[in-house]
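anyone seen this seq b4? input:
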Amino acid sequence: MPLFESSLGVIGLWALIGYLLGSVPFGVLITRFLGLGNLREIGSGNIGATNVLRTGNKKAAAATLVLDGGKGALAVLLARAFVPEDAVQIAALAAFVGHCFPIWLGFRGGKGVATFLGILLALWWPLGLTACATWLVVAAVFRYSSLAALMAAGLAPVWAILMGYGVASLLCVALAVLIYLRHSANIARLRAGTESRIGSKG
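predicted toks r here
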């Protein structure tokens, strides 16, 4: 964790900015705009790219993935342009929380994987690329988006330490814990062998 240099007022302001950026529900907006239906009533009801893919529209899913990652990255890059690293990491964490608990959807949001990857790419791009590679390898081998997310998040603190980004480790742990909590139902289905695979419309 970086040294605390910013005042509580500055940290609070960037926490709010990060939260509002993270809370934009791109999956819901894109599916509505394209007339693909109510995303809450499709598949798992999640607002992320994996569930958007269940509409059968790969371009909509790709756009959701990029925009959900982008809002996390934007929170980091905006904060980094104006404030020290402690407030940057708070803005990053708040953007993630905003995606998971958006005010616009009654605090019922997504699971934060794309936002998590966008945050890491913007904060420390080598670490972000390693987390993305972890997701891709696990997803390609096992065809479970949830398992890929859990592995990418769980290994992120390990990669941070091994790659010399000790300052990132605490944030990575916090994000990983939240991702595991948001995936509790997926973990239960993985253990039961009933989890949907990537590309499934169920």
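The chain has one domain: 8-192. The chain has a mean pLDDT of 93. kinda curious what u guys think
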